[in-house]
Amino acid sequence: MADASLKQKIDSGQFIAAPGVFDMMSLLMVEKIGFDAVYASGYWNVASDQGIPDAGLATYTDFVNRFAKMVKKSSAPVIADADTGFGGLINLAHTVRGYEEAGISAMQIEDQEFPKKCGHTPHRIVIPIEDMVNKIKVAIDTRASDDFLIIARTDARTGYGFDEAMRRMDAYAEAGADILFFESPESPEEMASFCSAIDKPCVANMSNGGRTPMLSVDELKQVGYAMAIYPAMAPLVMLEAIEKSYRTLKSEGVCETENIPMYEFKQFCSDIGFDQIHAFEKKWGATTNAPNNYARFA
């Protein structure tokens, strides 16, 4: 079930900075550093898992199975993308039950038509406001615990304007959403106007390369946000490093240079859990017949 600590921290006024996790290794690094929550992005998990765009092509099963694995490995509450709920109201109810049973602590649903698109790309179409209100009501009615939070997102700003997006945020707050998500505001002034007008916790999407200005945590607090998610930072940093290293291998024929920072292999073996494997084998004598050169990995 949901981790109650996320709701408790938000209710107490603690700001939540949730870095994006897009695979199990990125989650491992978040665990090592320590955060109050993590965000499982649909865009980046679909890209990592299937190598396809965030355009409504992945299924509920793809999402919930992948995120359930993250929940098992995360000591912090997991906030997870659920696109449009993967269909109509009955599909949404099924999604709510599945996400909550997987141990996810907050589920984000958006008001786009299916198939949806990434919130920082053009040509997004939103459903009638009444349809999204019903989705929110169904989600709240379906969940087993109030600790499982419903995040309602509108994608209306880019194609329909600020006022329409705010009209939707007001309606979604009235429908009972726990957290409000105004996707892709285009200025700090819009961000401040949103937060000041909504009497519920608001989340900022700090997506590198997107339409929204990138503010620091202190600036976001001052604006009035309760939470920020950072879905793109880690994968973009990783992709830059990978491309640079592959190009160096292609052009220079070497895989190690001073210009390419590289994580220590021995440290990663420890991070991933080989210390526990070695301790188990030492206790139970599992390596008695191992080759002599096995010790160099210890």
From TrEMBL:
The record's listing under InterPro entries reads:
ICL/PEPM (IPR039556), Pyrv/PenolPyrv_kinase-like_dom (IPR015813), Pyrv_kinase-like_dom_sf (IPR040442)
Metal-binding among the record's keywords?
Answer: yes
GO MF term set: metal ion binding; oxo-acid-lyase activity
Gene3D superfamilies the record matches: Phosphoenolpyruvate-binding domains (3.20.20.60)
Which keywords accompany this UniProt record?
Answer: Metal-binding
Q: What domain of life does the native source organism fall in?
A: Bacteria
Pfam families according to UniProt: PEP_mutase
Asked whether the keyword Metal-binding is assigned, the reply is yes
> What CDD domains does this protein map onto?
ICL_PEPM
Protein's recorded name? Carboxyvinyl-carboxyphosphonate phosphorylmutase
